[in-house]
Amino acid sequence: MESRIKIKLIDWQDPGFVKAFDAGLTTAFRDGLEADQAGLAERVESELHRQGNPRAWIDDRRSVADVLARVARWTVWRDRSLARLVG
Question: For residue 33, what are the CA distances in angstroms to 8, 13, 38, 50, 54?
């Protein structure tokens, strides 16, 4: 069954952050993690931290319908403290 990630990338205007996010996601997929797998967001977040974005945060929220449909919904922040101000 196919799985998907719907991603809202905050600070998408920062090319370095976008590149780090893409690299982290690619690495996680190469290591065998799947789009809707628990732990994928944490793994990508760890990669972002490792690549010089220590405040990065991935908010991974899913409803029961999302889980059944194998859809992950992420909001990706470069700075977790800004996420708290908005959310």
Answer: 20, 27, 9, 18, 22
For residues 40-68, one letter each, b for 16 or more C-beta atoms within 10 angstroms of the residue's C-beta and e for the rest, the string is: bbebbbebbeebebeebbbbbebeeeeee
- Encode pLDDT of 15-55 as tens digits: 999 999 999 999 999 999 888 787 899 999 999 999 999 99
Distance CA 44, CA 53 (A): 11
> How does strand 71-77 pair with strand 4-9?
parallel
Residues 6+ apart with CB under 8 A from 79: 11, 55, 56, 57
Q: What is the pTM of this model?
A: 0.85
Identify whether the C-beta of residue 4 lies closer than 8 Å to the C-beta of residue 28.
no
| H runs (alpha helix) in the chain | 15-30, 40-50, 64-69, 80-86
